[in-house]
What does this fold into?
Amino acid sequence: MPRFVLAAIAMIALFPATTFAHKFWLLPSQTVFSGNEPLVTVDAAVSNDLFYFNHHPLRLDNLVISAPDGTQVEPENATTLRYRSVFDVPLAQQGTYQIGIFYDGLFATWQENDRRRRWRGTEETFKTEVPKDADGLRVSESISRVETFVTNGAPTDPAGKSSDRGLVMVPVTHPNDLYAGESARFRFLLDGKPAKDLEVVAIKGGTRYRNAQDEMKLKTDSNGEVAISWTEPGMYWIEASSSDEKTTFPQASARYLTYVATLEVLPQ
Amino acid sequence: MKKFWLLALLAVTCGSLLAADRSDSRMLVTVEIPRLRVSEYHRPYVAFWIQDQKRQVAANLAVWYQINGPEEKFGNKWLPDLRQWWRRSGRGLDMPVDGISGATRPAGRHTIAVSDLKLDDLPPGKYTLMVEAAREVGGRELLSIDFTWPVTSPTTLEASGESELGDLTLTLRP
It folds into this structure.
């Protein structure tokens, strides 16, 4: 079991405040493409600094790449290295590709012989791997989406499947049509309904070369929408998270939801 | 030697000006691609278009890019480097486009005589001429000139670039 996911989920599970968790991200080589054989190469990692792969790789087990026509595309050269995963996506079609890693699973902790056990898995593996009489058992559901968008030619509506489980972002402004000096609107849905009063954080990459995170903190309106004003061009990390008790798994007592996107803002 | 080059340059410049003047086009765009002293030089990609007050493209005048390469559409890969043009127009076009696409030009002054075909579609109003240049391993520059169309008397408007573009002149005639 990948220790980093455990650590990260444990962080989220133990400390709902997002500031404790490392940042999950995908980093596309660029987001706007043209030409004969356009190809995006993507890094996937977990780190504190944006966007530097210096801590843990983000596993590609649940990678989903949706082509403009809605079909799913397999990555090429997918590899998980020590500090990052990497993969290529040939952009054979014209339009927008949605690239995401989606996780929907269970997390549990319990005491065993004076040791705290941490476990991650599915409803199936829970039956066999977690002792029925576990001492101090605490189970939570963890649903997260980490994604990015790239476009070959003119932008089209991202064709990735939305979900009525967890936090999703529905672009109002196209995610590959972002420019410094303009503002963009994004709509957040929680279980398919507008997520109002949700805190959304936007941080520009390159954090290693400045003294502060300089994060923009925004709150969604009653439609679940936020408007982000881009002051500078760059690659931005967008994050929203929440927790509640709307669990579906009988033993689970809490649910932790995270949404992350990497968006490129171009200069005028 | 220097004098010779100056004379030659003068002749070429006057020649292009005269050629421009001889054209009966109602709109002339003259742009200077500066001579740069850099170790690795590539001719810039340059896009010319007219946008309306909503920043929508009212007319595509020209795009100079690498039309010929080892394979078809080889040079299209870098068209998005003309960022504004790509956003406003390029990404929706299937290049090459007749009457717009052209090969990259060397340093010097170049004039585009805008065809009546494009101007006839331009309703009277306020517009902006946009000229954007991007050079491989170089920089990018965007120049604009606001104008009102049509004009009642010959009008010359100017702008100047600082890096990738030199003087830009827009000549409008009734």
